[in-house]
Write a structure and sequence with these properties.
single chain; alpha+beta; ph1033 like fold; 4 helices; globular
Length: about 140
């Protein structure tokens, strides 16, 4: 089992939609679109744990989930349910939305600098350490 951060940026939302609305839509239907050239796409597997992250300027975690599938092309029924125009992705289970969200700044303040954790990412799927994942969960639990 691996841990990942699923990163959304405002540029990922289309037609004036807020990135938080897009992420909430993915979480509600238990699906997450994954681009064909996305880093780690072939490594994602059922049982992997993910954190849902809104990148700059928000820099907050808004939830977590477990992968229920590997990356696959959407079936016709899945494609109809998907909140964006992606053609492939993963299914989510045990989805938990966090309200209020968890600040990346707070999470980073609890991770030793030697782990080189950071707040901004260029990719949509980021492999993270178990400690980074568990630290975010601990902060979420304390809210």
């Amino acid at each position: 089992m691996a841990q990942y951060l699923f990163n959304l940026l405002q540029a990922d939302a289309a037609n004036g939609q807020a990135v938080r609305e897009l992420a909430a839509g993915f979480m509600r239907v238990g699906m997450w679109g994954i681009d064909p050239d996305e880093a780690h796409a072939h490594a994602l597997a059922p049982g992997d744990q993910i954190l849902i992250y809104l990148g700059a300027p928000d820099r907050v975690f808004i939830g977590r989930a477990e992968l229920a599938s590997a990356v696959h092309d959407w079936t016709p029924s899945e494609a109809q349910e998907c909140p964006d125009n992606s053609t492939r992705g993963v299914l989510l289970t045990h989805v938990e939305e966090w309200d209020p969200p968890v600040s990346m700044r707070t999470v980073l303040s609890r991770i030793p600098p030697s782990e080189k954790a950071r707040a901004d990412f260029q990719t949509g799927v980021v492999r993270i350490t178990t400690n980074e994942y568990e630290t975010a969960l601990a902060v979420a639990t304390e809210r």
